[in-house]
């Protein structure tokens, strides 16, 4: 029998840390990562035959669950027609029109191959449009691994306790200004201090890469206001929240229109797809219409377009998002009740089917608050949960996700097992 431990030993000889994305190495929670053999619906199965209810959902894109028949059929049919062209195809137009229907603010858009590509291109466009160099991001937010974003970043950078990444020139890092999430006054101070030099604010509307942090009701309107006042652009990084927290993404929930939006994950149905888009006057600056260059050999890949379109069409079914939200709300309430029973301080929250938990009394309004979570307790809880058949993100600083494939019995099972795991983690 193939074993995960043996595969990990082999992987470490040819892959840095044995993985292709740092958090997957399980260093923050201990133990050896399991290697996946197959996945279907709400479950993921490792090479040794152990099955887990999956709340990672590939870090968010699998809103329908694993191997959904509609997506499988779309991928199969697209593949039979050829899986890359280096030329335009109808599916690109179909998916763009569906995205625009749900997010009217994306008057024009460009498909790329990852969220990192999308955010890189959006910031380049913002700098070109404003003639300014500085950008503002928020502590603990992660916008991909481009150099300028690895300043006080979240996701794996936070999980592994890394400083700002080596390899990022100091001159480039100085172009990124940071402020605490939910602190509009700090943002206004930055704009006053650097008046006429800030091109854009880029923000995760709901933070998902430092755990789950919800915005204050007045935070995003304040960002919109300061951008308007100083002639800067507002970029919503909805790579994680887009079509996940609501049919029209987080911008629908917070009621604020950004100038540019970046998307990923759900929009590709689990295939490598990213999008950046927004106001037509800005997007017309992108080559070949304008001078701002960005290109990609595999951008608009026909198979990925088909997967994304099939996914979005399934989420259009009546009641889809309401059902997801109810299941997520029940899960989060169950976790909160379990923590109370075990006498553990906890802060939990969710938006749509995106959720998170911190082992701290809270409130958690920013990354500094999030760092107060008990990471050692989380690590013990993660291991105990995994042994009971529940797969959570192997980091205290990652959001969780519920998919349409999670049944009511899955939620019942999960609440019971995570309750028991919490008792075991606290006892040890």
Question: What is the structure about, briefly put?
Answer:
The chain is an alpha/beta fold and 428 residues long. It has helices at residues 4-14, 69-80, 90-102, 115-130, 156-159, 170-173, 184-193, 219-230, 250-254, 280-283, 302-315, 320-341, 367-370, 375-387, 408-427; strands at residues 36-40, 43-46, 51-54, 108-112, 134-138, 176-179, 198-203, 233-238, 260-263, 274-278, 347-351, 354-358, 390-391, 400-401.
Structure description:
The chain is of the alpha/beta class and about 425 residues long. It is about 40% helix and about 15% strand. It has a seven-stranded mixed β-sheet, sandwiched between helices. Strands 1-2-3-13 form a four-stranded mixed β-sheet. Strand 11 (about 345-350) and strand 12 form a beta hairpin. Helix 7 packs parallel to helix 8 (about 220-230), helix 12 (about 320-340) runs parallel beside helix 15 (about 410-425) and helix 14 packs across helix 15. The longest helix is centred in the C-terminal third of the chain and has 22 residues, at about 320-340. The protein is globular. The two termini are about 30 Å apart. The relative contact order is 0.16.
Mean pLDDT: 94
Approximately how much helix is present in the residues?
A: 25-40%
Number of helices: 15
Extended strand count? 14
Measured by DSSP, the beta-strand proportion falls in 5-15%
Rg calc:
21 Å
| Biggest beta sheet summary | 7 strands, mixed
Q: What shape does the CA trace take? A: globular
SS class: alpha/beta
> Which stretches of 5+ consecutive residues score pLDDT under 50?
158-163
In the sheet with the most strands, the strands line up as: 4-10-9-8-7-5-6
- N→C terminal distance: 32 Å
- Helix/strand order, N-terminal first: HEEEHHEHEHHEHEHEHEEHHHEEHHEEH
């Amino acid at each position: 029998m193939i074993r995960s431990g043996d595969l990990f030993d082999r992987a470490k000889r040819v892959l840095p840390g044995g993985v292709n994305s740092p958090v997957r190495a399980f260093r923050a929670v201990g133990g050896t990562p399991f290697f996946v053999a197959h996945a279907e619906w709400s479950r993921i199965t490792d090479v040794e035959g152990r099955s887990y209810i999956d709340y990672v959902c590939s870090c968010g894109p699998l809103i329908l669950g694993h191997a959904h028949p509609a997506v499988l059929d779309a991928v199969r049919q697209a593949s039979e027609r050829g899986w890359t062209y280096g030329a335009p195809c109808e599916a690109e137009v179909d998916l763009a029109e569906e995205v625009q229907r749900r997010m009217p603010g994306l008057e024009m858009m460009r498909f790329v191959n990852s969220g990192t590509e999308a955010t890189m291109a959006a910031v380049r466009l913002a700098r070109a449009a404003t003639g300014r160099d500085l950008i503002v991001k928020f502590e603990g937010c992660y916008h991909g691994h481009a150099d300028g974003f690895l300043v006080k970043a979240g996701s794996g950078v936070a999980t592994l306790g890394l400083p700002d990444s080596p390899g990022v020139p100091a001159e480039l890092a100085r172009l990124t200004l940071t402020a605490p999430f939910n602190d509009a006054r700090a943002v206004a101070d930055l704009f006053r201090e650097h008046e006429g030099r800030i091109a854009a604010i880029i923000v995760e509307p709901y933070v998902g890469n430092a755990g789950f942090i919800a915005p204050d009701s007045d935070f995003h309107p304040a960002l919109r206001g300061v951008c308007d006042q100083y002639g800067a652009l507002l970029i919503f990084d909805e790579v994680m929240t887009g079509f996940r927290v609501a049919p029209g993404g987080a911008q629908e929930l917070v009621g604020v229109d950004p100038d540019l939006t970046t998307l990923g994950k759900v929009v590709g149905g689990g295939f490598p797809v990213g999008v950046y888009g927004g106001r037509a006057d800005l997007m017309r600056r992108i080559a070949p219409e304008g001078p701002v260059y960005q290109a990609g050999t595999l951008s608009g890949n026909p198979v990925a377009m088909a997967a994304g379109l099939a996914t979005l069409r399934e989420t259009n079914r009546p009641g889809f998002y309401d059902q997801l939200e109810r299941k997520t709300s029940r899960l989060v309430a169950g976790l909160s009740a379990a923590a109370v029973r075990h006498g553990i301080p906890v802060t939990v929250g969710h938006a749509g089917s995106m959720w998170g938990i911190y082992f701290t009394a809270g409130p958690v309004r920013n990354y500094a608050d999030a760092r107060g979570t008990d990471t050692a307790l989380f690590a013990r809880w993660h291991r105990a949960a995994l042994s009971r058949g529940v797969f959570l993100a192997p980091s205290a600083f990652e959001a969780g996700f519920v998919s349409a494939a999670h049944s009511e019995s899955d939620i019942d099972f999960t609440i019971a097992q995570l309750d028991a795991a919490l008792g075991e983690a606290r006892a040890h």
